Every structure is written in C-alpha cells, then in structure tokens.
Amino acid sequence: MLENFYIPFAELKFHTILPMFIVIFGAVCTLAVNAFTLKFSRSLNVALCMLFIAVDLAFVLGLNKFDLGFFGTVRLDGIAILTQIIILVASLFFIILAISKQRYAEFQTPEFYTLYLFMTAGFQFMVSSDNLILILVGLEIASLSLCALIAFNDENTGIEAAIKYFIMGVLASAFYALGAMFLYLATGNLEIHNIIAFIYQNNFEPTLLLIVGFIFMIGAIGFKVSLVPFHTWMPDVYEGSNPVLAGYISIVPKIAGFAVAIRLFDVFIKSGIPWVEHLLYVLVVITITLPNIMAFIQEDVKRMLSFSSISHSGFALACILINTTQSQNAMYLYWFLFLITNIGSFSMLWLTRNKEKIWHSRYEHPYTKFQGLVRLHPMMAILFAIFMFSLAGIPPFAVFWGKMLAVSAAINTGYIWLAVIMMLNSAIAAYYYLKLIVFMFLKEPVIKPENADVYLENTSYPIKGVIGMTAILCCLSIFMVQFLLDIASKYITNSVY
Questions:
Q1: Residue 495 confidence (pLDDT)
Q2: Cα 130 from chain centroid?
Q3: What is the distance between the alpha carbons of residues 383 and 378, in angstroms, rounded to a whole number?
C-alpha cells in the first residue's frame, strides 16, 4: 500500500508564485471578457491589462524577504524582486501606448492583450525560478507569446520578424536545454543553488561537463540578451515590429536574461578560471563595439536604436563580468535609467507613425523623416533630443549616471582597459545619436508647414503623457540616482545565489 502523500499548504509558500498568478489570472479574465462581449473595446482591454499589472507591481513592491517556495524551485530574493519591478514597470508603460489615435491591427485583436499578460508572467517565471527546467518553461512562455504579438503587425515585415525571432528563440532554448543537461550531468542537480553548492564543495574543480554546460549557457543567454555574435537577426526583428513591441524587446527580455546570467555566471566568475574571464571579456568588448560601428551606417532611426540597445547590453554584461556588489547595483541602476530613456525614444517613433510610408519605400522612420522637425513641431524635436542626449550618456541626462557608475565599478575592480573601452565607445556612440539631432535642428524640412500634421496622425493623450513623464525623469534623473541606488543595494544585498 502506498502511504498518503500530504503536503501542508503553508509549506508550498504560495506567496512566492503569487506575482505570476496575478497576471495569469488577469490574462484568463481578459480572455473571458472578450469572449462574452459583443463588441471589442481597445480601451477596456488596455484598462484590464493596466489593472492586473499594477496590482502585480504593488504586490511585488510589498515583498521584502528571501524565501524558497514549491520545494525550492521558486526563488524569492532581491534579484528576483528587483528584476520583476523593472519588467512590470516596462510592461505597464508600453501597454499604455496601445491607446493611439490610429487603429492598428495588432491592438484591435483581443488575443493581443491576453498574450501580453502571459508574456509578462513568463518573464516573471524566468527570473523567479531557481530550477533550470522552470526557467526554460518561463522562457518558452514569454518567447512564444512575444513571437505571436510581433506577427500581429499588419505590415508584411511583421510575419518575417516573428519568424526570425522564433528561430532565435529556438536556438536560445536549444542552447539552454543542452547547457542544463550538462550541468545536471556534472552536478546531479537542477536547482541553481544546489549546483553552486556542489561547485563550492569541489573547490571549483572545472570538469569537462561543467565547462561545456557553461559554454552552452553563454550561448543561450547571448541569444536572449542580444550579445554579439548571437544578435544575428535582432535588428530585423526591431524593424519588423511596431515601435511599442520594439521598445519592449529592447528592455524586458534582456533584463530577464541578465537576471539569470547573474545567478548562473557568478560561481564560474568567482572560480578564478582564466578562460572564463577572458571569454566574457571578449564578449563584452565586441558587444559594445561592433553594434556602434553598425549603427553608423543605418538609414532608419529604429534600426539605429536596435543596434544601440545591443551595445547597451554590452555595458550590462560588463557589470556582470566585474561581479561586485557595486557593479550589480550599477547594472540595475543603468537598466532602469535605460528603461526610462528607451520608453521615451520608442514612444516618439510610435507617436509619429502613420500608415503610409511617405518618406522611404522600406523604412518607417528614416532620418529624413525628422529633417527640420524643430521648425514644424519644436516641442517634439526638443523631447526627442532629450532622449538622444540621454542615450549618448551626456550629463545630466539619465543614462549618463548609469554609465558613470558602471565605469567607476570597472576602475575600482582593476578593469582599467575595460573602463577605457566603455568610455571610448560612449564617445563614438554620441555621433549617431547627435546625427538625428543634426537632422532635426540643422536641416530644412522635407515637407511643407501646412502638411506638418502628418507627424501627429497617431498622437493621443496617453502617448503624450508617457513621453512627457519619461522626458521629465530623464532631465531630473540626478535627483533619483541615490534613491534608486539605495533601493538596488537593499535588494542586491538580500540576494543569495
């Protein structure tokens, strides 16, 4: 006879999984509302998404202690909470942008909003799981949902972008599954904290299985956060997605991938194995540098921002390589300030989008589109310039403080040449950001003043509100830095990995 199997409910620690359950419940509710309403309402669906994401964010902000739930497979620590905050803040801002003046097919589809919430839950699972299998489940939920959302784009490029993102997702999952398999064969564990404990017990003795597992994991993370050379089709994915999803892709999947990288790479970096540091060092340098070179030759602002975001991923990876408390604080500060700036940048592209490609046969946002914008819409040009100055790392705008702290962390740890490379690339990147400002302020408009309303065809009060709020935060970021650092430090020191 089999004995009765009883698990006390309290032992499961349901609060560790409740953040994901809130948005999953929201997705089911949104699906049910659309099934039982006769007429689709975009405003209602956006309001429901905002409601459940806001409730989820409020719950996550209330979490403040380390815990393991569901037999040690779900981890609730500072990194999980801090990363979920960034994911939920970004998700909340981007769903607001769905309320645009023009009605685009993707936002007129009821399934969009359900998939959006499932995608958010998938990324939350990914950063909150301590089990390699559950991380993969979260990765697949998020990636497949995001593929479908990209495909909703009514442009022909939407399907192409979705297919390319799907293929990159398959490669990431394949690399991850192989890496997890080798790590399991080497340690006999699937929980990250047990794998780390095993490596410590064996005095960081690098077995062949551990080395192979680590290399495959680098490939998996590389595809997810767009490290060179794993970025492959990512600029095409940005181009084929609408600006809302392109902005989302530039922030959320990457911070989720970096959260997993912090947990997995920490023990290998601490092992003192020279080739581990050298491999990550090379990845950092080429990821910061090569996208900057490619951004020089772009004709489209959205493609330029795609290469820009890849280069910024290199800065975040540099913080993981440095692997100190200061560098991890710097990474989260950097990514939060980058989040503010990129939301504003892609919101500007979304505001100026129209259904007819007036300026270029292929691109929606060529540089020539914004030529002489200051003479047609001065405030729009000024706001866009603020976001470009911030991305370029020009003080006192937002991203400057993140770059300064990342460079400071590198210098304090002895990575002098890495700090030099980071500063040189920041100077190089300023060229293509300032190129857009030159087009907006120093060139003549390509359209007549009486046709200037073409820039406002998609504008709405929610979009204006998001742009205005992010622009203010970019300008006043100096007053936020210490506050954000204190929050990041509180959560990072409460992490056990």
A1: 62
A2: 20
A3: 9
Residue of 138, 372, 404 whose CA lies nearest to 253: 138
What is the CB neighbour count within 10 angstroms for residue 408? 14
Torsion of CA 38, 42, 43, 47, to 10 degrees: 100
Helix (H) or strand (E) run with residue 365 in it:
none
**Phi–psi pair at 313, nearest 5 degrees:** -60, -35
In the numeric block, the tokens 């956060």 are attached to: 225
Taking the alpha carbons of 41, 42, 45, 46 in that order, is the dihedral positive or negative?
A: negative
Q: What is the pLDDT of residue 342?
A: 92
Cβ 167 vs Cβ 115: under 8 Å: no
CA distance 329 to 486: 9
Q: CA 68 → CA 83, 135, 139, 226, distances in Å?
A: 17, 15, 20, 30
Stated pTM of the model: 0.92
By the 8 A CB rule, do 425 and 389 touch? no
Secondary structure element (H or E) that encloses residue 314, with its range = helix 301-322
Which two tokens mark 293? 């070179």
Element spanning 469, H or E: helix 461-475
Q: Is the dihedral of CA 424, 426, 427, 433 positive or negative?
A: positive
Largest CA distance in the chain: 86
Q: How many CB atoms lie within 10 A of CB 430?
A: 17
Supply 154's token pair.
């009514």
Q: Letter for the amino acid at 427? A: A
> What's the rounded Cα separation, in Å, for the pair 111 and 29?
12
Question: What is the distance in angstroms between the CA of the first residue and the CA of the last residue of the chain?
Answer: 40
**CA–CA gap between residue 435 and residue 439 (Å, rounded):** 6
As a whole number of angstroms, the distance between CA 69 and CA 20 comes to: 13
Residue partners of 47: CB distance under 8 A and separation at least 6: none
What pLDDT was estimated at residue 1?
Answer: 46
CB 480 within 8 A of CB 404: no
The H or E element spanning position 69 is: strand 67-69
In tens, the pLDDT along 366-402 reads 888 888 888 888 899 999 999 999 998 888 888 889 8
Residue in the structure block whose two tokens are 């600029």: 235
Residue type, 362: R
Measured at the CA of 495, the angle between CA 494 and CA 497, to 5 degrees, comes to 155
Q: What CA–CA distance (Å, rounded) separates 211 from 231? A: 23
pLDDT under 70 in the chain at which residues? Answer: 1-12, 72, 154-156, 355-356, 360-361, 494-497
The Cα 378–Cα 408 span in angstroms is: 37
Q: Which residues, 6+ apart, have CB-to-CB distance to 426 below 8 Å?
A: 392, 393, 403
227/208 Cα distance (integer angstroms):
24
